[in-house]
Structure formats: C-alpha cells, structure tokens
Amino acid sequence: LVKLLCDRGGTVDKKDKSGQTVLHYAISQGCEEVAEVLLAAGGDANHISKGETPLCRATSKSNLALVKLLLAHGANIIL
Predict the structure, then answer these.
(1) Domain span at 56
(2) Per-residue pLDDT for 1 more than 80?
(3) What confidence tens digit (pLDDT) does each residue in 44-55 have?
(4) 23 assigned to some structural domain
(5) What pLDDT sits at residue 62?
(6) CATH number of residue 23's parent domain
(7) Residue 63 in contact with residue 30, Cβ under 8 Å?
(8) 55 lies in a domain?
(9) φ, ψ of residue 52 in degrees (nearest 5)
C-alpha cells in the first residue's frame, strides 16, 4: 500500500501535527520494508522531529538493519 501511494505521487515527507513523518513512524514500529520504500521514494532520512532524526530513533530501538538502511540513504550521524 505504501509503495502504491508513493508511486501515485503521495507526499512522502508530510508531517503530522507533532511534526513526525511516516518514516518516523515506520522506524518506531521497526517496519524495514516500509522505511525502504519511503527512502527510495525520496523520504528525508535527516528530518528532525522533536529533536530526533529517524537515525536517532532507529538507534534508540537498537535496530541495526534500520540504522544501516538509513545510513545507506544518506542519514547524517552528526545531527
């Protein structure tokens, strides 16, 4: 479903009321496939929400696969 929405021009980095993107939620839930689709569609691996990037969130969840995926898509370790 996420791929279909991205393929049809869905806004990948749309933020909710708290400033979080779908990528933040995918990382929180450990959804590697969803995160990969979002990043491939141009999702921002460095978007900061509540002082936290997707990489920070993946690290806090100890999800090495997501950390590697984010780094492969340009996540900045300095942010």
Answers:
(1) 2-72
(2) no
(3) 999 998 889 999
(4) yes
(5) 96
(6) 1.25.40.20
(7) yes
(8) yes
(9) -135, 135
Residue 77 lies in a domain: no
φ/ψ of residue 49, rounded to 5: -135, 125
State the total domains in the chain.
1
- Give the distance, in angstroms, between the CA of residue 58 and the centroid of all CA atoms in the same chain: 9
- Three-state SS for the chain is CHHHHHHCCCCCCCCCCCCCCHHHHHHHCCCHHHHHHHHHCCCCCCCCECCECHHHHHHHCCCHHHHHHHHHCCCCCCC
Supply the pLDDT for residue 13.
81
How does 12-38 read in b/e, with b if 16+ C-beta sit within 10 Å? beeeeeeebbbbbbbbeeebbebbbbb
**CB count in 10 Å sphere of residue 4:** 9
Contact 41, 49 (CB under 8 A): no
> Is residue 78 situated within a structural domain?
no
